Amino acid sequence: MKIATFNINGIKARIGALTDWLDEAQPDVVLCQEIKSVDEAFPREAFEDRGYNVETHGQKGFNGVAILSKLPLEDVTRGLPGDDSDEQARWIEATVVGETHAVRLCGLYLPNGNPVEFDADGTPLRDGKYGYKLDWMDRLEARARALLAEEMPAMMAGDYNVIPQPEDAAKPQSWEKDALYLPQTRAAFRRILNLGFTEAFRAREQAPGHYSFWDYQASAWNRNNGIRIDHLLLTPQAADLMTECRIDKEVRGRDKPSDHVPVWVTLAA
DNA sequence: ATGGCAAGTGTGACTTGA
């Protein structure tokens, strides 16, 4: 079972690039972020024609997540638990049943968190957009604990907007005051990992220089000035099934690319 | 150190992203 995460940066602008990649990579499931579309406007037919079931959790203009799956999607839920006042569309879950195992899939688009405000000491304030990011990560940790307690193959995958380590950025020093790389951000990410999740890509590859995002600006792609912020976190039961994990880097060099590329795992499920 | 781009909304010039 091949499962991918892909921040597509707008479904309308990415139909061609996304369907081209689907036809060639043949994933069973794609967790999509930043669909930037309401549910009614999502171009389902392009994917249903290729045999994918489509579940969306969209909003107008920004954010929005979706799941495309060749397997039936069961028990679909929308929204990250823990704050009924949060109206941003950043979380969707569903279960797929493979030949040997059922797998719970959580697709997420974690808040960016910039700009960060600092006090006079240079300490980031837990306020505004950065406060929302850290609060969202606390809710993610709570959902992660509940998921682990189920003791089933499950994953939380998506655009985490977290650079975990210096080796995950071409120029780590340029991110030091950024919400994606502040110590508080990285600590919150580690707290979740340390509950017992396997970060799929790092479990298979320890070398630096592997990225999943290159900014559209300042020739970031041509200079390979990238960061690795799209992650798949696997429960122990899912990690036991993992056979492969890769980043489809070359997708970034095509026509009308997203600024992110797909990252995928295969599970013996 | 700075500025650089793309997408959505909606048709001009913003907001947001990372």
Please characterize this protein's 3D structure:
With 269 residues, this protein is an alpha+beta fold. It is 23% helix and 26% strand. It contains 6 helices and 14 strands. The chain is globular and about 55 Å long. The relative contact order is 0.17. The chain binds one DNA strand of 18 nucleotides through loops. GO terms for molecular function: double-stranded DNA 3'-5' DNA exonuclease activity. Keywords: Hydrolase, Magnesium, Metal-binding. Belongs to the DNA repair enzymes AP/ExoA family.
* Count of alpha/pi helices: 6
* Helicity range: 10-25%
What structural class results from the helix and strand content?
Answer: alpha+beta
How many DSSP-defined strands? 14
Rough shape? globular
Distance between the termini: 6 Å
- Proportion of beta-strand residues: 25-35%
Task: Give helix and strand order, one letter per element, not per position.
Answer: EHEHEEEEEHEHEHEEEHEE
Give the mean pLDDT: 97
Radius of gyration: 17 Å
The strands making up the biggest β-sheet line up spatially as 3-4-2-1-14-13
As residue ranges, the low-confidence spans are none
Taking the sheet with the most strands, its summary is: 6 strands, mixed
